[in-house]
Amino acid sequence: MATATAGGAGSAPPADKRPDTGPGTGRRPRGSVTGTRRAVAAAFLLPALVLLGALVVYPIVYSVYRSFLDQSGTGFAGLDNYEALFTDATIRTAVKNNAIWVVFAPTVATVLGLIFAVLTERIRWGTAFKLIVFMPMAISMLAAGIIFRLVYEQAPERGVANAVAVGVHDTFAESSGFPKAHPLPVHPLKAGGDGSFVTKETVRAGQPANLPLVGVVPAKMPGDAEPAKAATASGDGITGTTWLDFTKGGGGKPNVVDPEELGLKGLTVEAVKDGKVVATATAGPDGVFTLPASADGSLLRLPADNFREPYNGVDWLGPSLVTPGIIGSYVWMWAGFAMVLIAAGLAGLPRELLEAARVDGANEWQVFRRITVPMLAPVLAVVLVTLMINVLKIFDLVFIIAPGSSQDDANVLALQLYRTSFGTDADLGVGSAIAVLLLLLVIPVMLFNVRRIRKEGRR
């Protein structure tokens, strides 16, 4: 009896040669891996592609096209708009400031985030601390700009930064209480040339010395100042009075101590002979001072320290410090973002490696520098690149914090783009060229980030 051989008429076709589709097979027609037809996939992607083209591709293409046109948009300008990027002083300042931002702002924010994440890892209230540091992220750039505009206010009574600076300064070098005091032409004093005031004639023992001044607001007088007292003659030394020669409501006589006039308490009086100080005295609450007999025949001098202007703090929003000041406000906002991401990466580190290093004798600094930081390198790269892209587009903080007098010194590309493209003398050609420059600066950072992500995905 004959038997069926392989490949004979009665044998079934191999499994790999069976038809994939057909009636009754129960199999779907060949399509993508998920079985979804390409037409269906394209239908789902089409709205996203349309939005991407309308909101991203078209503006980029049109900006490149507009950057080659003149200010009116009707004539071809060639590379003139791009040449302006390197010849205009204001735009060069913006490029320089952008470089400062890219180098310092992401670096400082990342370093602070790393320090905060590491130091708060083992403490019980670390979560509360992280919440406080991260809280500025919930504030808009507009609100943060207004906050720091007030923080950097020049007047110490309004600006927190200068209030602290003045408090620290005055702890070690107290300012004078009579910064604007000065004599009148009818007074027996004249300017000494270095901010001081000197008597017009020498003084003699037994003759009272009167040193009147004006220019002090009565409300700014020391609280314990007393009514000035006319000095009495002293046989051995020199006695005198220094007072505010001003009577509220008018009246009074110059060079005469009137009952309602106050003594200049604390004013320093020096006796000068041949250019040398031979004696010094300090006026009491009633303005009376006494010099020894060695001051006979000398000139009396009120040194410039009596009239030193009070310390008003640091000019945070001046031309030299406005950019570092604004970077400080940015770091205040974004250090919490860096800390949270780094803390998440830190929580995923294998603890056995850290403990093994400690068992082998490594101290905490060595563990941090040689194990923690290298293992956190991917997370640090994410934070650093994200912040670099962010600062290249910085606009809000600079526009709000920098006052008009120093906005040119704090200028950045995004702000210059706004100032060039809008207003009465707008030049959309140069503005579009700035936009293209910003795009070219961001693209390398984005490509680096994409390559890093793909490299991490292959691991």
Give an overview of the whole structure:
The chain is built from 13 helices and eight strands. The chain is 46% helix and 8% strand. It has 459 residues and is α+β, with helices and mostly antiparallel strands. A hairpin with a 5-residue loop joins strand 1 and strand 2. The radius of gyration is 39 Å and the shape is elongated. The chain has a five-stranded antiparallel β-sheet with strand order 1-2-8-5-6, with no helix packed on it. Strands 3-4-7 form a three-stranded mixed β-sheet, with no helix packed on it. Among the domains are: 176 residues, MetI-like fold, CATH 1.10.3720.10; 119 residues, no CATH class. The N terminus is likely disordered.
Outline the secondary-structure elements.
Blueprint: H1 38-66, H2 80-87, H3 89-119, H4 126-134, H5 141-151, H6 160-172, E1 189-191, E2 197-199, E3 209-213, E4 238-244, E5 268-273, E6 276-282, E7 288-291, E8 299-302, H7 322-347, H8 351-359, H9 364-375, H10 377-392, H11 396-401, H12 413-421, H13 428-458
Parallel strand pairs: 3-4
Antiparallel strand pairs: 1-2, 2-8, 4-7, 5-6, 5-8
Helix pairs in contact: 1-13, 2-13, 3-7, 3-10, 4-7, 7-10, 8-9, 10-13, 12-13
